[in-house]
Design a protein that fits this description.
Radius of gyration: 28 Å
Order of helices and strands: HHHHHHEEEHEE
Strand content: 5-15%
Low-confidence stretches: 1-15
Domain RPA-interacting protein N-terminal: 8-46
InterPro entries: RIP, RPA_interact_C_dom, RPA_interact_central, RPA_interact_N_dom
GO molecular function: zinc ion binding
Pfam families: RPA_interact_C, RPA_interact_M, RPA_interact_N
Main location: nucleus
């Protein structure tokens, strides 16, 4: 007679839909992971060669959402914490399935970030190659077209237009190259160039780095 409640409990988890809290818990975990993208990438950057994918935020997200769910559903209130639930093989299977889905989502975010870094590096290399050329300078803003350099202005078909005085291709190339090189000595990430101007100031070329 004492085994009947346990059998009913296990039967509930073996039903086709799984435990009743499964979908709500899965959805909240995914939403929390997506909303923590900036935190994930920051932790990934600081981890370096440390923890691999899956060891960054997934466990933390699962623990936090389990506490929220446990307090919101009467049937789960007061039950054991997530790590103690792992003793039940049926509940373990549900949690492992959700964990694998979260790890996959985490890896996709990291892969997208790494692709973005590779793209930035390729663009920077293309710009540096343009700086090395003897007669052409690739626009540091659009990274596609060549700059037109004249004594009184520097412009590009992308819309860059900066008034200058006594500018030459040699001077501009030297300025850009020295600035990018100085940054590379202190930071591994690629800088970006934009054209900026104040209300009463002429346009200027600004180099910035998100890191």
């Amino acid at each position: 007679a004492m085994e009947e409640p346990l059998q009913r409990h296990r039967a509930r988890y073996k039903s086709p839909g799984g435990p009743p809290w499964r979908e709500a818990y899965r959805r909240r975990c995914l939403e929390r992971l997506r909303s923590s993208r900036a935190k994930l990438l920051d932790r990934y950057r600081r981890a370096g060669d440390g923890p691999g994918p899956g060891a960054l935020l997934v466990q933390e997200v699962m623990e936090q959402e389990w506490q929220v769910l446990r307090d919101s559903l009467p049937g789960l209130r007061g039950q054991e914490p997530l790590e103690q639930m792992l003793e039940d093989p049926d509940e373990l299977a549900v949690l492992e399935e959700i964990q694998q889905e979260l790890i996959l989502q985490e890896q996709l975010v990291i892969e997208e970030y790494e692709q973005s870094l590779r793209f930035d590096e390729e663009c920077l290399n293309a710009m540096l190659e343009g700086l090395d050329a003897t007669d052409r300078i690739i626009c540091p803003v659009c990274r596609k077209s060549n700059l037109t350099v004249k004594t009184h202005l520097v412009c590009c078909q992308c819309g860059l237009y900066i008034s200058t005085q006594d500018m030459t291709e040699g001077k501009l190339r030297s300025l850009l190259e020295s600035t990018v090189t100085e940054h590379s000595h202190r930071c591994l990430h690629s800088p970006e160039f934009t054209v900026t101007s104040g209300m009463q100031e002429e346009a200027n070329l600004l180099m910035s780095c998100s890191v």
